[in-house]
Amino acid sequence: MKRKPLVIILDILLVLAVIANFVLATDFTSGTSMDPTLKDGQPLWVMRPTAMRLLHVNYNRGDIVIAKNDVDLNNLTKGELIVKRVIGTPKETVSVGRKTVYINDKALKEPYVVHKMDNLYYSYGGVANGGQVFNDANYKATTKLGSNQYFLMGDNRPASADSRWIGAVKQSQLQGKVIVKLPFNAHNLSGRLFGQILVYTPLILLLLSFLASYLYDLRAKSAKQA
């Protein structure tokens, strides 16, 4: 039986949605630690780790990533997902001064940072006021990264619980790379609705495909009987 063009189109869209669902996940920013790059409640399309491995996509400095926190520390819960920027990559030495980040002793240029860092007043490592060590303007907290470790920081430096608190993050903790920042807000009704549509797109298309096929078959049977 010849299929109606609408059914064929829906089937094609369904296949594309399933493929996209394998490659991409939809996530949402929570909090302001990545401000102004990401807004609280902003939907994100994230490339899944499995797809990254198959497509040979790596994590690089400057990437925005989703990571699973593996420590309980103050306002961070073990297992909680966080969104941060990759600052240090495997085998690099990351040094964080009062106001500047250094990679292998070279100051890192960070045009994405608007809210400047001042670790003198930041709870570095969960210790209030940096444990006072940053009273010395020349002090640097240094981390030598292992072969599968990354140093993550939020763009909103004064308000980000990141590798300054939780230490280096293993690659196994990374849950994917952000590839699209969608211009919506999940805190608004329209943004929440759009976000849910993104999450359930494959299911929605599957139901529409079945419905279209059913209605087409029903119409065809009615035409034959007539």
From TrEMBL:
It is an enzyme of class 3 (hydrolase). One of its GO terms (biological process) is signal peptide processing. Residues 7-180 form the Peptidase S26 domain. The keyword Mitochondrion does not apply. One of its GO terms (cellular component) is plasma membrane. The chain crosses the membrane at residues 197-216. Keywords: Hydrolase, Membrane, Protease, Transmembrane, Transmembrane helix. This is Signal peptidase I. It comes from Lacticaseibacillus brantae DSM 23927.
